[in-house]
Amino acid sequence: MTLGGGVLAAVLFGALLHAGWNALVKSSPDKALDTTVIHLAGSMLALPLIAFTGLPPSSAWPYILASVVIHIAYYTALTGAYRHGDLGLTYPLMRGTGPMLVALSANATVGESLSSIAWAGVTGICGGVLLLGLTSHALERPKAVAFALANAVVIALYTTVDALGVRTTAAGGGNAAQYVIALFVLDGWPFGLVVLYRRGLAVAWPYAKARAPLAFVGAAASLGSYGIALWAMTRAPVALVAALRETSVLFAVLLGVWLLGERFTAQRAAGTAAIVAGVLALRLG
Question: In whole angstroms, what is the distance from residue 102 CA to residue 110 CA?
């Protein structure tokens, strides 16, 4: 498998979608409830699509169910990270470390090894993501850092499980859309029901109604983003796709500069340069 130009462009577009729905969460006054509403909306969007895609083969279901369980840990750690630290600290830590763990384990888990230039690309993207977000502020929030790093392990785990699952689906005569749709139908409910139980419908229902239009936009972006990533993993090495997907952090920074008037500092310029160099290296590798 190689990283073709079409796959690269698709994954970068998926990263832009990922940045978009995360920007919705960032703008939310209640991140746990917003995460719940977006993912429940994703389940509702995905359910009727089964009529068009059909269900994945039986060989894919162990991976789908495992991924649903792993995502419960992901949402739990994500909420913990955001409770103890801000998005600017925790998000780059999670998204910059996760793909490196995928790359380090790729030979054992999916039987893939990277060339030297591909390793340089993965390192450039992950290093650039960390540069975009990390400051000395990290030393003041040890609990946030601990949750974020724990979630990086979870991200690497569900990325690998879903990559194996979508490839198993394809080998069994199915396609990536079937796997993604089935996953999204189930994924939002376990964590969502826990949050709804803790907050109570008296609080959650008015909030959900108010955020519903934006939530469905975010859910569509989330579904599209992850669908593109898993489709790409059937055509290119998993570690390269996982790293490319985290260019979403760069898009988030650029959206912040453009729409929110955030400063584009020298550190952010260095992070941007590292990510762009990493993308070019992955294309060459």
Answer: 10
Task: Judge contact between 152 and 98, C-beta under 8 A.
Answer: yes
Give the rounded percent of residues in the chain with a pLDDT score beyond 90: 40
pLDDT tens figures, 96-124: 888 899 999 988 898 888 889 999 999 99
Distance, in Å, from the CA atom of 22 to the CA atom of 249, rounded to the nearest integer, reads 9
Burial bucket for residue 225 (CB in 10 Å: 0-12, 13-18, 19+):
buried
**Token pair of 97 as six digits:** 């470390």
Alpha carbon distance 128, 268 (integer Å): 8
Amino acid at 18: H
Please give the model's pTM, rounded to 2 decimal places: 0.88
Cα gap 161→69, rounded to integer Å: 11
